[in-house]
Amino acid sequence: MIKVVVKFVVMMIVFAQILAPIAEAALGKAVYYDPPYTRSACYGTQRETMVVGVKNNLWQNGRACGRRYRVRCIGATYNFPGACTGRTVDVKVVDFCREPCNGDLNLSRDAFRVIANIDAGNIRVVYTP
């Protein structure tokens, strides 16, 4: 009986670890911007390339600076077959995407290219902290 209970507890812990990131995931839209990526609302000057600017709802008056997101394309916003590469990309918040911002996430072109075809331009994404 004790072995059964222990196995059950272990299984529950494993499932919780697997499902926790899914519960934190958010859906949104992503676009990209062209280099250079040196100007930054968070850091003034920065040299990283896997970066993102975020819309006001994620910006939180600058508290988003330095936050990291894992982003995955789940489809084109508009009719663009084969928009997604099937990969994920990890990006760091370095900027604020001022209105009109066409996406929740304004990825660097380098980051966008990892997850989607550049020609898609505007994609639906799932992102997690």
TrEMBL record:
UniProt superkingdom: Eukaryota
One matching Pfam family: DPBB_1
InterPro entries per record: EGC1/2, Expansin/allergen_DPBB_dom, RlpA-like_DPBB, RlpA-like_sf
CDD domains in the cross-refs: DPBB_EG45-like
PROSITE patterns associated with the record: EXPANSIN_EG45
Endpoints of the signal sequence: 1-25
Cellular component, GO annotation: apoplast
Molecular function via GO: peptide hormone receptor binding
UniProt keywords, alphabetically: Signal
A Gene Ontology biological process term: alternative respiration
Record domain Expansin-like EG45: where: 28-129
PANTHER family associated with the record: EG45-LIKE DOMAIN CONTAINING PROTEIN 1-RELATED, EG45-LIKE DOMAIN CONTAINING PROTEIN 2
Name the UniProt record assigns to this protein: Expansin-like EG45 domain-containing protein
Origin species: Arabidopsis lyrata subsp. lyrata
